[in-house]
């Protein structure tokens, strides 16, 4: 089993823990936080919690059971995982070596079938969707011309990418998908009707929703790869146990 420890005792850490626990070869050892959070007590009922020695009194005051301190936490794990909700990135630490997976890494990987020379992510802060997705305009520069029909085909068939090809209300997406198609919080959702080809013919803009935990599947694959498991094999395992689906949502 691959033993993973998570930094944080917040709702993001809880979602991350659930995703990791879905994998047959992963064991989440516990969650670490210097001081308790508003959900630490609830988390203590489903996993081991760790804290700093100086923070122990705060946990005791709230009646929260602690498994051990930072040293105990680090001794029991193979990988350390930390999620940054502001950057939507995951940092992995393994034997003193750290790698960070952010939105640009994830999108470039998932759109690898498209001849991309440059990607710019323009987060659209003027549009509020919900806590589960971050709206963004993807500005793609292509290294060669591709017809819009071919581009759509590539997007629809891209792994870990979901597409919508009709007019939808973002509120509908936020209410329905995170709960009834939970895998979408690990996905990039592309709105095909928003595709705009610029005059130079090599630049494409497309509106998207970036699932807040989109880095999770790639993080799991990176962990397995560091353990000598082929990435393609890992991706199949990861996607199966996260119930990941690609193609048209609507």
TrEMBL record:
Gene3D superfamilies, A to Z: NAD(P)-binding Rossmann-like Domain (3.40.50.720)
The record's InterPro entries line, in alphabetical order, gives: NAD(P)-bd_dom_sf (IPR036291)
Q: Which organism is it from?
A: Candidatus Korarchaeum cryptofilum
**This protein is called what?**
Uncharacterized protein
Superkingdom classification of source? Archaea
Q: Which taxonomic lineage is given here? A: Archaea, Thermoproteota, Candidatus Korarchaeia, Candidatus Korarchaeales, Candidatus Korarchaeaceae
């Amino acid at each position: 089993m691959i033993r993973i420890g998570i930094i944080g005792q917040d709702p993001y850490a809880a979602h991350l823990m659930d995703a990791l626990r879905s994998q047959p070869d992963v064991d989440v050892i516990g969650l670490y936080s210097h001081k308790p959070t508003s959900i630490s007590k609830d988390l203590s009922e489903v996993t081991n919690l760790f804290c700093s020695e100086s923070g122990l009194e705060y946990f005791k005051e709230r009646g929260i059971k602690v498994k051990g301190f930072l040293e105990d936490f680090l001794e029991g794990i193979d990988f350390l995982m930390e999620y940054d909700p502001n950057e939507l990135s995951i940092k992995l630490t393994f034997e003193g070596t750290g790698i960070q997976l952010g939105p640009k890494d994830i999108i470039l990987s998932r759109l690898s079938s498209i001849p991309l020379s440059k990607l710019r992510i323009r987060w659209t802060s003027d549009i509020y969707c919900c806590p589960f997705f971050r709206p963004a305009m993807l500005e793609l520069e292509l290294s060669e011309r591709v017809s819009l029909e071919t581009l759509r085909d590539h997007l629809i068939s891209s792994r870990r990418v979901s597409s919508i090809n009709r007019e939808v209300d973002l509120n509908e997406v936020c209410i329905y998908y995170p709960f009834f198609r939970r895998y979408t919080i690990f996905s990039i959702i592309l709105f095909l009707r928003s595709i705009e080809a610029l005059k130079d013919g090599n630049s494409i803009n497309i509106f998207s929703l970036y699932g807040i935990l989109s880095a999770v599947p790639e993080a799991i694959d990176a962990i397995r790869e560091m353990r000598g498991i082929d990435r393609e094999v890992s991706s199949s395992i990861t996607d199966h146990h996260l119930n990941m689906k690609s193609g048209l949502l609507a």
